[in-house]
């Protein structure tokens, strides 16, 4: 019916074209063929559309054992409000704070059993003996880290292009150094603000796992604070957490990167020959004390494997080799320096072979 209503042809037009003898016969035949093709195409389209419109909608048949009672669970509007019991879990990416063993003077525990000082000096208020690293080395290292961070904190393109990893390593080391300042019995600069600065620096290191606008803003602020401290000003920090543990303050991977930089890129080549040793004695002393500090810190409670005797043994091996290196510099003994360098290399190799 649709085709009949849509395509009623005025036969008078065709008759006129066919019967008009003034037109050449060939031209009249071509016109008739064109009209016929048009009518055939139009009729085909109309028939297809009519059949499609009359075709019923086909739907997949549900399984015989389908149970739609669970649909409301799958498509719940508010999973936490409607379906789960209890409090919503905390964000898993946040660092957990383990119970701390805090000494009376603040700072963290984790030294020798019973809080006894290690051989070579009196223990500081935190229960650890940091007398092997001098105030001069700590202060010089803080200044060096400031110089490395400053240009990155002024260039967001450099920060996002990989500088954020440098900032993570350096702010992690700064957090370690300021905890050492807090615990040390020595007179080191910035002692009064050490806890607040320590917490500010580890938090900045934590956000530098990625290079974003937010982490760049944090680095820029802390870089300004650090530069002010180095220049003698006293930035305002929030009150530091006296109950903080190494688990929160310092991640091991950035400290391992600093160890690699100190030994593989510096000390290793400086002790390879007597001439290199004597030309770089001041630098060797500085790096050896930093290595000793990292080796000592990484066996404290809160770090991974701190309760593993083998792991603690490797930390002690690294720490003691670094102290031998310090002794070699002070005694002008290049042979002892080479021997200590070999012990450091062995500690690194053995530890990496067992812990990844």
TrEMBL record:
<dbReference type="GO" id="GO:0005506">
    <property type="term" value="F:iron ion binding"/>
</dbReference>
<protein>
    <recommendedName>
        <fullName>Cytochrome C</fullName>
    </recommendedName>
</protein>
<dbReference type="InterPro" id="IPR002321">
    <property type="entry name" value="Cyt_c_II"/>
</dbReference>
<keyword id="KW-0812">Transmembrane</keyword>
<dbReference type="GO" id="GO:0020037">
    <property type="term" value="F:heme binding"/>
</dbReference>
<dbReference type="GO" id="GO:0009055">
    <property type="term" value="F:electron transfer activity"/>
</dbReference>
<dbReference type="InterPro" id="IPR010980">
    <property type="entry name" value="Cyt_c/b562"/>
</dbReference>
<keyword id="KW-0472">Membrane</keyword>
<keyword id="KW-1133">Transmembrane helix</keyword>
<dbReference type="GO" id="GO:0022900">
    <property type="term" value="P:electron transport chain"/>
</dbReference>
<feature type="transmembrane region" description="Helical">
    <location>
        <begin position="31"/>
        <end position="53"/>
    </location>
</feature>
């Amino acid at each position: 019916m649709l085709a009949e209503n849509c395509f009623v042809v005025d036969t008078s037009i065709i008759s006129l074209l066919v019967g008009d003898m003034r037109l050449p016969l060939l031209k009249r035949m071509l016109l008739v063929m064109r009209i016929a093709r048009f009518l055939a195409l139009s009729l085909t389209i109309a028939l297809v559309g009519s059949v499609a419109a009359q075709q019923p909608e086909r739907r997949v048949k549900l399984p015989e054992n389908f149970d739609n009672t669970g649909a409301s669970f799958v498509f719940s509007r508010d999973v936490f409000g409607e379906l789960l019991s209890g409090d919503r879990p905390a964000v898993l990416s946040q660092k957990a704070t383990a119970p701390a063993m805090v000494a009376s003077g603040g700072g963290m525990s984790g030294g020798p059993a019973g809080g006894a000082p290690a051989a070579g000096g009196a223990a500081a208020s935190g229960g650890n003996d940091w007398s092997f690293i001098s105030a001069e080395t700590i202060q010089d290292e803080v200044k060096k880290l400031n110089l490395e961070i400053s240009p990155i904190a002024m260039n967001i393109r450099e920060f996002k292009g990989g500088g954020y990893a440098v900032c993570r390593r350096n702010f992690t080391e700064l957090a370690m150094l300021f905890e050492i300042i807090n615990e040390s019995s020595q007179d080191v600069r910035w002692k009064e603000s050490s806890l607040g600065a320590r917490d500010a620096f580890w938090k900045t290191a934590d956000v530098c796992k990625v290079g974003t606008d937010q982490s760049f803003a944090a680095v820029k602020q802390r870089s300004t604070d650090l530069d002010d401290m180095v220049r003698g000003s006293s930035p305002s920090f929030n009150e530091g957490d006296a109950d903080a543990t190494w688990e929160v303050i310092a991640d091991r991977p950035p400290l391992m990167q600093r160890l690699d930089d100190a030994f593989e890129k510096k000390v290793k080549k400086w002790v390879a020959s007597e001439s290199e040793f004597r030309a770089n004695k001041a630098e060797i002393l500085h790096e050896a004390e930093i290595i000793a500090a990292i080796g000592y810190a990484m066996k404290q409670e809160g770090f991974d494997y701190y309760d593993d005797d083998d792991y603690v043994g490797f930390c002690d091996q690294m720490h003691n080799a670094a102290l031998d290196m310090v002794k070699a510099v002070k005694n002008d003994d290049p042979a002892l320096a080479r021997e200590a360098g070999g012990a450091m290399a062995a500690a690194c190799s053995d530890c990496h072979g067992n812990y990844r």
